C-alpha cells in the first residue's frame, strides 16, 4: 500500500503526543510513504515553534528537520501539485497548505493519512472524504 502522509502525522515520528504509536506504525508497516516536499518547511516550522516554547530540545528539533526526508519513499515537488491544490483550496475555502497533500492523494489515487482534526472535519461531507484516513481511528489498513 502507498500512502500520503501529512505534517500532522510526520511530527509524531519525532514528538511523543497523542497517536504517536499509530504514526510510528506507518514507518514499519511496509507501506510506501509519500508527501509533497512542502512537508519539509511545515515540519521545520513546528520544530522551531516547539523549540521556542521549550517543548523540545535543540537536538530533537534538528533531528526533525534533518531526519524527515529519509523517512519518505518520495517527496513530490510542490510545483507539480500547485494547480490542483489551488483548485481544491478555492473550492473548500480551506488553507492551500493542506490541499497540497490532498491533491497528491487525489492525483495518485492514494489515501491521505492525517491527524489534523480541522482538515478531517472540513472534508467530512465532501467527495474528498473517501481519500482520508484518520490516524487516530485505527483504520490505516483499510482501502
Explain the overall architecture.
With 143 residues, this protein is α/β, with parallel strands linked by helices. The chain is built from seven helices and five strands. It has a single domain (2-37, 71-137), classed as Rossmann fold (3-Layer(aba) Sandwich). It has helices at 7-10, 20-28, 39-52, 58-67, 82-92, 96-108, 117-123; strands spanning 2-5, 32-36, 74-76, 111-114, 132-134. A five-stranded parallel sheet has the order 3-2-1-4-5. Helix 7 (117-123) links the parallel strand 4 and strand 5. Helix 3 packs antiparallel against helix 4 and helix 5 (82-92) crosses helix 6 (96-108).
CATH architecture classification name: 3-Layer(aba) Sandwich
Number of helices: 7
Give me the CATH superfamily.
5'-nuclease
**Estimated helix fraction:** 40-55%
Number of domains: 1
Low-pLDDT sequence parts: none
Biggest β-sheet: strands ordered side by side in the sheet: 3-2-1-4-5
Kindly provide the name of the CATH class: Alpha Beta
Cα separation of the termini: 9 Å
SS-derived structural category: alpha/beta
Content of β-strand = 5-15%
Run of helices and strands: EHHEHHEHHEHE
Number-wise, the strands total 5
Main sheet specs: 5 strands, parallel
Q: Based on Cα principal axes, name the global outline.
A: globular
Mean pLDDT: 94
Would you give the CATH topology? Answer: Rossmann fold
Over all CA atoms, what is the radius of gyration?
A: 14 Å
Amino acid at each position: 500500500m502507498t500512502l500520503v502522509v501529512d505534517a500532522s502525522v510526520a511530527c509524531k515520528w519525532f514528538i511523543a503526543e497523542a497517536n504517536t504509536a499509530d504514526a510510528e506504525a506507518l514507518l514499519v508497516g511496509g507501506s510506501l510513504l509519500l508527501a509533497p516536499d512542502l512537508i519539509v518547511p511545515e515540519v521545520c516550522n513546528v520544530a522551531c515553534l516547539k523549540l521556542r516554547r521549550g517543548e523540545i530540545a535543540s537536538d530533537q528539533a534538528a533531528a526533525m528537520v534533518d531526519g524527515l526526508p529519509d523517512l519518505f519513499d518520495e517527496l513530490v515537488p510542490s510545483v507539480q501539485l500547485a494547480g490542483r491544490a489551488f483548485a481544491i483550496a478555492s473550492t473548500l475555502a480551506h488553507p492551500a497548505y493542506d490541499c497540497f497533500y490532498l491533491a497528491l492523494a487525489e492525483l495518485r489515487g492514494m489515501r491521505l493519512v492525517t491527524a489534523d482534526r480541522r482538515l478531517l472535519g472540513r472534508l467530512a461531507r465532501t467527495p474528498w472524504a473517501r481519500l482520508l484516513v484518520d490516524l487516530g481511528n485505527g483504520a490505516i489498513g483499510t482501502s
